[in-house]
Structures are given as C-alpha cells and as structure tokens.
Amino acid sequence: MSILDEPSVEGRFGEFGGRFVPETLVPACQELEAAFRDAWTDPTFRAELNQLLSEYAGRPSMLTECHNLGRSLGIRLILKREDLNHTGSHKINNVLGQAMLAKRMGKTRLVAETGAGQHGVASATAAALLGMSCKVYMGAVDVERQSLNVFRMKLLGAEVEAVHSGSRTLKDAVNEAMRDWVATVSETHYCLGSVMGPHPYPWMVREFQRIIGEEAHAQCRELLHGEDPDFVVACVGGGSNAMGIFSGFIDTSTARLIGVEPAGGAAVGRGVPGVVHGMRSYLMQDEYGQVQEAHSISAGLDYPGVGPEHSYLASIGRAEYPTVTDAEVISAFQLMARSEGIIPALECAHAMAWIVREAPKMQGKVVLMNLSGRGDKDVGQMMEILG
Amino acid sequence: METEFRAKREQGRKLLVPYVTGGLTGWQQAIRAAADAGADAIEIGIPFSDPVMDGPIIQEASQRALDAGVTPVSIFEEARELEVGIPLAVMCYYNTIHHAGHERFAYQLVSAGISAAIVPDLPLEESGLWCAAADAAGIETVMLAAPTAPDERLPRIAARSRGFLYSVGLLGVTGERNSLAASATALAKRLKAVTDVPVLVGVGVSNAAQAREACLVADGVIQGASVVRRLMDGGPEAVGEYVAEVRAAITF
To answer: In this predicted structure, what is the pLDDT of residue A2?
Structure first.
C-alpha cells in the first residue's frame, strides 16, 4: 500500500490534518480544494506550470556531489540544489503553482506569511510575474533579522507588514495572514508557504513540491547506477522542502528519511498533538494548550508546529525527526562554505549539522541532502554572530 | 440557555450578549454590571495564544490576561463565584478544548456553572467529537454561520446549533467598525428563513445604533470589542453604562 496517498475526505493523514478554520473560510477551503483537483488533473494547467518551472524557475535543479566533505566525513554526500532556483529556494515551486491556481480561480490578490523571507520573496515574484497584488506578513523579529529579503519583496512590488503580536515571528505572521484572508476572501488567495494549514494546503503544497523528490529519485538512480541513497535528509520548520524530497523516496525506496528540527522548535520531538493554524498536528504547547514560542537561529524554522503529514510519517515510523542546536548549525554553515564553496541557508545548515554529527554512524553510506535555499539572506546575521 | 432565549423572544425581547475576556482586570465586576444593566447572557472569552478570529482589541485583552497568568482553570474557578442569574457561555479556541480533552473540558464547564460554548475555529465538519461530549454533559454548543456560506449549508449549521445561532456580521475578525456591514442583516435574514433557533448577530456590531439596526432583523446581538475596550479603558462601570445604552436601543 502506498504511504504517499491523498489525505482522507476530511483532509486527514492518519489522525493528523483536518480543516479547523473559522466558518467564514470553510467555503473558501472547499472552493480551493475543488479548483486544485480540477487544475491538477488538467493537462493544460500542468503543462503551463511545467513550462514556468523550467523556463522561469530553472528546473530541473541539479545534483552536486560534495567530494571534499564526503571524504572528510567518510560518506557519499549528494546535494539536491534547490538553492539554485530562481529566488533562491524551493519556495518558488509551490508559489508558481498556487499563483497560477489563484489566477485560474479569478483571484486578484495574494497574501502570504513568511519567516525567513524566502516564501515572501517567492510570492512577491509570482505576483509580479502574473500581474497580481501581494501583501506579505512577517513577524517584527524576522523583519529585523532578514532586512535584505524585506527590501527584495518591496522591490518586487509587494507590501510587507511587520506583525507585532504574540512572539512576533512566523506563527504570528500566519495568524495575521489568516485574519487578512477572513476579511478579503472573495478576491484574495492565501498563498500558504508550507505543507501546513487547513486541508487542502498540506496536500496541495506537497503536490507542488514533490517535483523535488521525483527529480532527485531519478537523478540518484542515474548517478548511483540504479541504486537509491541510504539517507534522505532535510530541515523541517513547517516541512515543505522535506515533504518535497521525501515524496520521491517514501514509497519507492527504503531510504531512511530524516527531517531535522531546530532544538528550540522541535514540534515532533517535543510537541504533543494540538490544533492551530487550521490543522491537527504535533505542536509545542503548555499545560493549558497555549502555543509556545519557538526559538531558533533560523527565522524559517522558528515555528512551534509542523505539517500534519510529517506528524503522520513520524507516528508510523517512516520518517525520523531529530534535532540540532544553534551552535551545531553555525559550525555546519561555516564548514559547508569552506569545504564546498557553497553558502547554505541557515535552515539547510540544520540538515548539514545533523549529517556532520551522525557521519560516524553512516560510514560508507550515501546521503542525499536537500539544499533547499541559499544563504545570501543570512550573511548579515552571520556577520554579527561571528563578529 | 436556549429555552430561556426562546421564552424571552416570545415576550418580544431582543437578546443581548456582552463578551468579556476572562481574567482581564475587573472582569467579574464587569459581568455583574452587564447583568444588572440588562444582558441576557454573558460570553466569557478564554484567552488563547493564537486568536485568529479576533482583531486588535480582543487580542490585546487576551494578551494582557495571559501575561497576568490567567488560565482556563483560574477562569472557571472565578466564574463559579459569579451567580449573576443569567446563563454563561465561554468563547474558546479549539486547542483549549482539545488539549484538556473533550469530556474533561465539558465537565469543567458544567462544574463552573457555564451552560454553553462557542468555538470559532471548529466548523461543522470538525465538530463531531466536541459536540458529542458537550451534548452528553448538557453543554450547549453555539455554531457560527458566516456570510460566505452557500444556502445549502445554513440549515445544516442551524440544525447543529444549541443555545442560539451566531450570525457572523461581516467578512473579517472581531473589532469595531464605523457602520454595520450590509452582510450583517442579510445573513441574519437568510438564517431566520431556515431556522427557529434564536439568531444573534456578532462581529462588527459596534455600538447601540448598530445593535438596533441588527435587531430589526435578528433576535439579538453579541457585543464584543466595544465592551472589552470599555472595560480596558473605563473599567466595569463603563461596561454597565454601555450595556444599559444598548439595551435601551434594542427595546422596541
């Protein structure tokens, strides 16, 4: 039986997922689900999206084998280069799909949340390309630490609003984007950036991101002479880049799937099932169900929840969700830059940090890592940290 | 609550339900003042870290209460002391219930003397587990209906609603607006046509005049941000004065 199925009619992956939204948004979610089903089975839509992905986003993204790091760690280390996509991360795959879908639904405006700014930049880009207006909500803390991306969004014509409520990071940006959507639902599409939120988002975003895994699976077979990697590793905040690459290996290989969470935002590692942002999933919360603040060096992973399909994969044991510390991340970030000439996004440095730590137990194995974004946006922050 | 609301409606009275954030400074006195000034029931807000249906005023009130260490349990303990002679309802986000456990939460409400629950992020399709526990405990679950709902959806929501039916006045979150949205009376009219459950308009009914306008069609109104702002700015007396003003305006 296939694990990578559609969720149930209620949008459940096992006992996770669902559609816990204000009544105002229920018809919007139903309409979106119907529109996505229709588009996703429409060869014309698929062809148009594929054309954008190849001619605009630069797909397929290539594989790079890290010979230097591989040698020193005693493993074969292969990167899936989503950092080389237009706008610098995997986020563009999802955003082009959703923006095309929104346009097909007659919507004229996109709202989006963003943590590190990569999804915001991708949304602003797609809006510019397709002639839509775009408003991006970003936690005030993140506006501060990702000022370069804030300016990029503005250059692209988007309006950026700093969110001052709650922990002033990604989770609060999601709240504010949902409040906007509740008030503007007739003309606005909420362009959610990860495999989270109410049904159909977790499924729809996975479908838009599974191209990462499908390409990587075929590319690995070629590089490895018909073999699959032993490990597939990705960082997890909401979890879209991880779901994207896992999709290519869940059913078609026995590779161990590793989703690396930050120690301060370990939804699967430290959370218990809860309901926020429209979904039932693992969630960091206190004894009364108040959602706790995540703390991570990486704005993109600073999220106390996780996409429901990850909770499901964890619950059935198909994927594992270890954590790494900020200190391990900083050192992995530098190691990758110096050994391979690649500056990773701080998010992806989490995956790298796990690989570095666990390499002694993986000697001789093949490790595929999703390098989901480039680190240009993090250089300013690292300059402060490293003095 | 529903029996009492239906009886009052029979007598030609419009129903007035002020909302007060639980645990906010002066909240118990505000509830007493509101009851004395002519409220028919009180909606007690249980503060939540991520209130997606609430605008800036109720967000701020929730945050103040949370910062002061307020918990659902502390609110229930204090609610038990209220004895205001009108029904009490809670407005809480679903994770508060989910985390406590459905049966346990329903039992906590009963023990606190609370008769109804409004859960703004629990739509019809997800409400089964909670409604079963609430029904079993005798807690009335008030469902919300929104202007975006297609006609076929409204009777199904109304059929599952107990206590009253919450008619969401506009597309948007709680908060005060300059005028009553046209959607407020339009939706109330659509609901009145398909149900005899009392229909109360909430979200965006911001003053006595707007309450009167809504009550030309609906069976009553919920007053949220306008009450909470007065409690934060003027204290419990200001809430009492305001509730009396609204009561007068909706007495036809």
So the answer is: 82
B71 CB neighbours in chain A (<8 A) are 288
**Gyration radius (Cα) of chain A, Å:** 19
- The pLDDT assigned to A341 comes to 98
Domain hosting residue A135, numbered range: 12-51+91-201
pLDDT at A269: 85
Residue A28 contacts B, CB cutoff 8 Å: yes
Among A201, A236, A254, identify where a domain stops. Answer: A201
Give dist(CA B2, CA B7) in Å, integer. 8
> Which residues 6+ apart lie within 8 Å of A137 measured at CB?
A111, A112, A113, A114, A161, A163, A173, A174, A176, A177, A180
The residues of A annotated with a catalytic role in the active site are 66, 90
Using an 8 Å CB-CB cutoff, list chain A residues near B168.
Answer: 23-24
Chain A residue with CA closest to B154: the answer is A23
Say what the pTM is.
0.96
pLDDT digits (tens, 9 = 90+) for A118-170: 999 999 999 999 999 999 999 999 998 888 899 999 999 999 999 998 889 89
Is the domain of A303 the same as that of A334? yes
Query: What radius of gyration, in Å, describes the C-alpha atoms of chain B?
Result: 16
Does residue A99 belong to any structural domain of this protein? yes
How many whole angstroms from its chain centre is CA A323? 17
List B18's β-bridge partners, or say none. B223
A158-197: pLDDT as tens digits: 999 999 988 898 999 999 999 999 999 999 999 999 999 9
Q: Which of B43, B140, B213, B219 is catalytic?
A: B43
Query: Both A289 and A150 in a single domain?
Result: no
What mean pLDDT is reported for chain A? 96
Query: What is the distance, to the nearest Å, from the Cα of residue A256 to the centroid of all Cα atoms in its chain?
Result: 19
Assign A1 a pLDDT band (cuts: 50, 70, 90).
low
Give a yes or no: residue A1 inside a domain. no
Q: How far is residue B10's CA from residue A73's CA, in Å, rounded to a whole number?
A: 80
Round to whole Å and give the CA distance between A205 and A33. Answer: 12
- Report how many domains make up chain A: 2
Does the N-terminal peptide bond of residue A60 adopt cis geometry, omega within 30 degrees of 0? yes
A168, A201, A234 — which closes off a domain? A201
Domain membership of residue A6 (yes or no) is no
Q: Give A23's contacts in chain B (Cβ within 8 Å).
A: 120, 123-124, 143-146, 148-149, 157, 168
Residue A2 lies in a domain: no
